[in-house]
Design goal:
37% helix, Uridine Diphospho-n-acetylenolpyruvylglucosamine Reductase, domain 2, seven-stranded antiparallel β-sheet, homodimer, alpha+beta, Uridine Diphospho-n-acetylenolpyruvylglucosamine Reductase, domain 3, 19% strand, Alpha-Beta Plaits
C-alpha cells in the first residue's frame, strides 16, 4: 500500500474531469503547433511557486497569440465542458495554475505586445503576456513608469487576475487602483470590454474590478489598460538597520500615521538580509532593516527623508545608507525582489508556504511580533519580508514538500497568523490571492453569506464551471 | 384627449408593479410610525434632482433605524416581489430614486451614527445616512478628513451607491478608491459583509467594488468603512481668471501631465461665476476661472503653487487670488459646491439636464470647447463647471421641465456630447451614475455583451428584480 500523499490533505477535494480525445483533436486542428501535449510542456504549465507539487498537469497547452485564439480555445473547451486555466509566467504562489480538475492550459505569454502608449493621458494598453518590466521598458522614454511590482517579473494579465501589488503600493495603490480597462474572453468565448481610458467612471457595475482579482474564474483577460505615472523629479532610496523587528515596525506605523507620502517602505528581517547578501552579493549589515524610497521634488524628497530619519532615530534606527544613483537603487530593489528566491534557495530542495496577511496599520506590530515568536518556537526555518507601509507582511515557512510533519507545522503557524489578522480587522491575503490554499481562510474572513454571493456571480457568468474551476471557493 | 407627457419619451418604458394592500399592512404592523403612506412623504421620496418630475411616487416609505429594519423591510417586500428603493438625502441627478416600477422607499437618513473612528488606522465606519459633512465633523478633532465631496451634502450610503466623487478626486480618488468595506442587505434580506479594514486585499471577488456604483440594484448598503487622510500641514486655495475657457482647460491639462499633485482643480465658466456671485455674495470677476487647492507641507504647497502659476501665466491666466485662512477657503468651496443650485436658481422654475462626461485628459480641450460651441449655437441657457483635473465636466442645460422642445434640444446636446466623449475613449458618466437617464449611453459605452454580463450578475443576485428595478439597464 502506498503512503497517503502528504500534500493531499491540504488540497480541496475536487473531482477531476475527463478531457475527451475529440477536444484534443479539435485543438490540434485549430492550433497546429500552437497546441502541445508534450509531457514536459504540460508539467511546466501545471505548477507554480506554491508548495503543491503533486497535482497532475493539464491535458494540453494552447499557446495563444491573439484574443481570437483565446476565444476559440475557450469555445472548443466549453463545447466539451472542459476546464481552461490561463497561464502567464507561472509565478503565482497559491496554486492558481494547478489543474486540480484537469482541463487545458491557455498560455498567453506570446500575447506580449504593448498595444498603445498614451503618454499624454498617462495610460498604456498591453496584451496580457507583457511583463511588468516590459511595460516599464516601453514607457520610460516618455518619462513615465508603472509602479506595481510583485517580486517576480510577472505578466500584467496574471497581476490583474490576482489583484497583485508589491513595494510601491503604499503610495500608488495596487492593481485594483491601477487597471483602468480590460478586454476579457468570457466562459462562452465571447469578447467583452470593461471600463474606458477615463480616470473615473460611474457607468454601471464595475466589471473591471470584478475581473481584477477573480483569478481566471470569471474570464480570461486578453488586454489591459493601465495607469502610468510621471517619473518623479527626485528619487532617493535608503536602508536603515534597527535593533529589533519591533523598532522597525513601530517606525513604519508612525510614518504612515503621520501621512508621509513614502513611496516604498519594506521590512526585511536579519535572516533574509543574510540570504539576500548571499544571493545578490550585497554587504548589508545583518539586522532587521527597513528599505525605503522617497519620490517627489528634490525639496519634497529631502523633507520626507528628514522626517523619517527623525522617527527612525526615536526607535533606535541607525544611520541611513542612501542610494540616489539609479544603478545603486536598482541593485537594492532587485535584491529585494529576489528576496523570496534567495530565501528559498537558502534551504536546498525546500518549498515555501507563504503567508500574506494584511492588517490595519495600528495592529501591525502585534501581528508581526506574535508571528515571529510563534515561528521561532516552532523551529522551522522561515523568512520575514513585508510591505509594512500597507500593513502587509509575508512569513515564508521553508519546508520539504514531502515531509508531512513540516507541512503540518507550517500550516499550523499559517492558521494561527491568519486567525489573528482576521480578528484584527485584516485580510488573509493582501496580494497573493486565494487560489487553492486559502479557500478556508476566505470563508473565515468574508463569511458564508458573502462567499455564497461570490458563488452566485460565478455560476451566473460560468454555469458549466469551466474557468479555472476549484479555485477561490469550492464549486 | 390629453397632450402626451413631454417627459415620458425620455424615460425607459417599464411596467409598474402593484403593491398589494397586504404588504402595506405588514409594513405598518412591523414598523408602526416608522412607515408612512402620506402623500407628501411619498412624493418627497419619489423624486430627486433630475429633470423627471412626473413619475408617480412609491406606495409607502419605511424610515429604517437599523440594519434589522432594512432587512425586515426587504424581506416583506421580497415576499410580495415588490420593488424597494433605498433613499439617502435625495440629491441624485439621474432619476435613481424614482419609483418607475412602483414599490416602497426605504429611507436610511435616520441611520446616521458614526459607528467607530479608528484614527490610528485612518478609517471610519458609519451608517449609510451619515452625510459627508457629518463624517468630517466627526473626525476633525483627530486631525483627519474625508475628501470625497459631491456638491450636495449627500449621504455616504448614496455616495457609495453612485460611486460619487467631487472636487478632491483628482488627488484622493473617488468612492471606488475610498470605500474599504461594506455591510449590505441582499435581495433576500440577508446581511453580508464585504472587505475588511486592511488597506489592500486579494481575498476573492471584489464585492465591495461591485456594490459601489450599483445604484441600489444589487443590495442596500447599511454600513460603510471609509479611508481617512491626515489634514495636510498646509493648505492653500487660489482662484485664477483666464481670457478663455480654452486657456483654463489647457492650463489644467499641463498641470496633470506634469504630475503636479494638485488637490483640487475646478473650472467655472463666466456665466456660472455670475450665478455664484449672486447666490453666495462673492465678488469674483466674471471670467472663466480655475479654482484650485494645494495640500502638503508648507514648502511643498509653495512649490506646487509656483509651478502652477508659471503654467497659468503661459496661457494668460491672471494673477492668483490666494485664500489661505480656513474661513476664506470654506467660503470659496461652499460657493463652488452651491454652483449647481446657484445656476438652477438663476432661471426660475427650470430643471437641469446635466452632462457628466469624463475623457482622457489629452482630449479635454476638444471635449469642452465643442460642447460649449454647440450649446451656444443651440441658444439654451446653460452652465459649465468641471472637475477638470480628472477630465470630468458638467454642462447643465436649464429647461422648463414641461417644454418638450427645450427638453429635446437639451437631450440632443447631451447625446452629441456623450457620443464625442465615448469616441475619445471616455465615459458617459464620471460620477453621477446611470440611473434612468443614461441607460442608452451605457450600452453605447460598454457594449451589449458587457451590459449582458451586468444583467447576468443582477439576475443572479436579485432574481425577482426587486432592488431599485428599471435603473442602469432595462430588466
Amino acid at each position: 500500500m502506498n503512503a497517503p500523499d502528504p500534500q493531499a490533505a491540504w488540497l480541496p477535494d475536487t473531482p477531476r474531469r475527463e478531457v475527451p480525445e475529440a477536444l484534443i483533436k479539435a485543438l490540434k486542428t485549430r492550433f497546429a503547433s500552437q497546441c502541445s501535449t508534450a509531457l514536459a510542456v504540460r508539467e511546466q504549465h501545471g505548477r507554480d511557486e506554491s508548495a503543491f507539487t503533486h497535482v497532475p498537469p493539464p491535458a494540453a497547452v494552447v499557446f495563444a497569440e491573439s484574443t481570437a485564439d483565446v476565444a476559440d480555445a475557450v469555445k472548443l473547451a466549453a463545447a466539451h465542458k472542459v476546464p481552461v486555466i490561463p497561464f502567464g509566467t507561472g509565478s503565482s504562489l497559491e496554486g492558481h495554475l494547478l489543474a486540480v480538475q484537469g482541463g487545458i492550459s491557455i498560455d498567453v505569454a506570446r500575447m506580449n505586445r504593448v498595444l498603445s502608449v498614451n503618454a499624454e493621458d498617462l495610460t498604456v494598453t498591453v496584451q496580457p503576456g507583457v511583463t511588468r518590466k516590459a511595460v516599464n521598458e516601453a514607457v520610460k522614454t516618455d518619462g513615465l513608469f508603472f509602479p506595481i511590482d510583485p517580486g517576480a517579473d510577472a505578466s500584467i494579465g496574471g497581476m490583474a487576475a490576482t489583484r497583485a501589488s508589491g513595494t510601491n503600493a503604499v503610495r500608488y495603490g495596487t492593481m485594483r487602483e491601477n487597471v483602468l480597462a480590460l478586454e476579457v474572453v468570457t466562459a462562452q468565448g465571447n469578447v467583452i470590454r470593461t471600463g474606458t481610458r477615463a480616470k473615473k467612471s460611474s457607468a454601471g457595475y464595475d466589471l473591471t474590478r470584478l475581473m481584477v482579482g477573480s483569478e481566471g474564474t470569471l474570464g480570461i483577460i486578453t488586454e489591459v489598460t493601465l495607469k502610468l505615472y510621471p517619473l518623479p523629479e527626485a528619487i532617493s532610496a535608503a536602508t536603515c538597520q534597527f535593533p529589533s523587528i519591533e523598532a522597525a515596525v513601530r517606525t513604519t506605523i508612525q510614518i504612515i500615521q503621520m501621512g508621509i507620502p513614502i513611496a516604498r517602505c519594506e521590512l526585511i528581517d536579519a535572516a533574509t538580509v543574510r540570504a539576500v547578501n548571499a544571493h545578490s552579493k550585497l554587504g548589508l549589515r545583518e539586522a532587521p532593516m527597513l528599505l525605503m524610497e522617497f519620490h517627489g521634488s528634490p525639496t519634497g524628497v529631502h523633507e520626507q527623508a528628514e522626517l523619517v530619519q527623525d522617527i527612525a532615530a526615536e526607535f533606535g534606527g541607525e544611520s541611513f545608507e542612501w542610494a540616489t544613483a539609479p544603478e545603486d537603487r536598482t541593485r537594492l530593489w532587485t535584491a529585494r525582489h529576489n528576496a523570496y528566491f534567495a530565501a528559498v534557495q537558502s534551504v536546498p530542495g525546500c518549498r515555501c508556504i507563504t503567508t500574506d496577511a494584511c492588517v490595519p496599520i495600528s495592529r501591525l506590530a502585534d501581528a508581526v511580533l506574535t508571528a515571529v515568536a510563534e515561528a521561532d518556537a516552532a523551529g522551522l526555518p522561515y523568512f520575514l519580508v513585508g510591505h509594512v507601509g500597507d500593513g502587509n507582511f509575508h512569513m515564508g515557512y521553508l519546508i520539504d514538500p514531502d515531509n508531512a510533519d513540516e507541512r503540518a507545522r507550517a500550516e499550523h503557524l499559517n492558521h494561527q497568523l491568519v486567525a489573528r489578522a482576521l480578528a484584527m480587522g485584516g485580510t488573509c491575503t493582501g496580494e497573493h490571492g486565494v487560489g487553492l490554499h486559502k479557500m478556508g481562510f476566505l470563508v473565515d474572513e468574508a463569511g458564508e453569506a458573502s462567499v455564497a454571493m461570490m458563488r452566485a456571480v460565478k455560476h451566473a457568468l460560468d454555469p458549466d464551471n469551466i474557468l479555472n474551476p476549484g479555485k477561490i471557493f469550492s464549486l
